Amino acid sequence: MNQRSSNLLDEALGLDQTIEPWPLRGRIVAIEDQVETSGSFVLHHILKRSLSPNSSNVSIFIALSQPFSHYDRVLRKLGCNLVTQRDNNRLFFFDMLMLQCPGGDEGISPECGLIALYGKIYKTIVALPEVSSKNVTIIIDDLSLMEVAANGSSDYVLDFLHYCRTLTTEFDCSLITLNHEDIYSSADRPTFLLQMEYLADILIKAEPLATGLASDVHGQLTVLNKGMNYRQGSSRNKISNFHFKVKENVVECFYPGSQG
Amino acid sequence: MAESICRALRDGALEGEHAPALTIKDSMASPFGFHVFSHVLSQLSSFILAGKSQSGGLVVVSFSRSPSFYLEMLKNKGIDVVSSDKRIQILDCYSDPLGWKDRLIEAGNFTALSREASNSSTANVFKDVKHMDKLYNSIIELGRGLVGGGKNQFSVAIDSVDEMLRHASTSSVAGLLSNFRSHDQVSSIFWLVHSDLHEARVAAVLEYLSSMVTSLEPLHQPANGQRGDLENFSLIEHNFKKGKFHVRIKRRNGRVRVMSEEVHIEQSGISFASLSSEGAINQGLVPKVQFSLELSEKERIDRANVVLPFEHQGNGKSIQIYDGRRSLADSKHERQVSATEKMQTNEDSGGGEIIYFRDSDDEMPDSDEDPDDDLDI
């Protein structure tokens, strides 16, 4: 049921074969979406996969967009109980809805809120038992709201992301981020978006179809997998493109033209 | 081409001249800049370790990758940095560039494990990237530590000028790079920049500072940057694995040499090849269908030889047009215009006569206005 239909996405991410070791270890995944095609389903899917009962993964979820109850509801429909996972210390949910960096007062710099957040994540990882600390997935939903919380300073957010990136090298964590492409479309140069695209090992874009709205297909996903991983000694660039349809309990992914 | 720039960095600065400086420039359309940077880094490292270069050491300023990444990368290319007699040092501007870890420790209740520094003896952590002068001093100090003082020289590699530009002003970054070029002990310097992250003038500043500029561009430009169609998707796929590698070298005598190559991204790294012909490129643009959309050579020649009806062949003769009533061999149609004669008989015709009274004998047809000028009607 769920397994089959999301296979294309799993395949594109490298999640279709093994769960252990976690294929996204040490990698940064950047999801970009638009108003017409929300990419949060990709986030939910990765969260669900990382909390799979077959693995010892731990997820640190930094929520700036929705409260815990929302994700609990969504993941429950996908067959994953977030409350249980949280109680079992497999999910650490940081509710950052009220995150606000102080606005440049004397003695307190605006980046303080983000420095403290980084410190919190670091402490959480360090406190994990040895076996779990090797499979941590940090998920941020979403970056545009983090920029808002940082009073519009994308530089502070980029600094924070850089430090999160050092966690991927220091602890082999995965970093999954979501951002909205159309917010930056009016800018001369979407620098913040491009910085994230350069940073990402895997770039996932959720876009509407070029042909417009359709009832059978909600949008298309393009997955660019930059395989530059010297640890495995290989550099395989892989690009996939397929359509998706968001249903109540599942998201179906299929190649163009192969559905109805 | 790529080899010539590596050689230029290896040979270093001439007496009384600034050190050669290379800018590696890419953009999201062809994001292989880091592959090129790694290639140049490994080439220069092997020259230095073999004692074949002007410089006796290399300082790698790492902003975008951890020091262990570079150690592993060089090891995969057969260059063992740790046992290499300390010819390569890495200035670690990656692990804690802004000193956040120190600030958290000060705030209490935080223990930084600093695995990076303990893992490799070749990493030196730098925590103050907002100050270009401190960065400059640290790099020079590291370089002198490698080669000693006096006239001994070292090379500098900066893996991300973008990060520097994020933390400091363009003028201070330009000042730093310029100071390196004019420093007695710097033999050569190269850096990577993503051109689409900055304004055009910033990229221009960096280009002015360099004696060599390599830029990466996609082989095929997708139309309108739209990702909607399948056609564009295959272009993107193509551009994901290959690109165009342009090199511009400024010589001492003022001449500029421009060269281009194709660059391929492979399992083991990158490779360079000369640019393929246009035909090969166009092959990639023809949609894959089950019938042939192209012409063979014979078909092309035959098409060129077809005589189109109503079209001047430029040889003074009018075209014999087959009108379906008589065979072409039997009849001959000739149009004669004469100002004085009104009647004309055609003695060769086999039984028919055409008497033509032209209304506008006195007027010359205005060739500018007549759209049928090129036709024989």
Automatic annotation (TrEMBL), chain A:
This is Elongator complex protein 6. It comes from the Eukaryota. Belongs to the ELP6 family. InterPro entries: ELP6 (IPR018627), P-loop_NTPase (IPR027417). Pathway: tRNA modification; 5-methoxycarbonylmethyl-2-thiouridine-tRNA biosynthesis. GO terms for biological process: tRNA wobble uridine modification. GO terms for cellular component: elongator holoenzyme complex.
TrEMBL record, chain B:
Pfam families: Elong_Iki1. PANTHER family: ELONGATOR COMPLEX PROTEIN 5. CDD domains: Elp5 (cd19496). InterPro entries: Elp5 (IPR019519), P-loop_NTPase (IPR027417). This is Elongator complex protein 5. It comes from Herrania umbratica. Pathway: tRNA modification; 5-methoxycarbonylmethyl-2-thiouridine-tRNA biosynthesis. Keywords: Cytoplasm, Nucleus, tRNA processing. Signal peptide: none annotated.
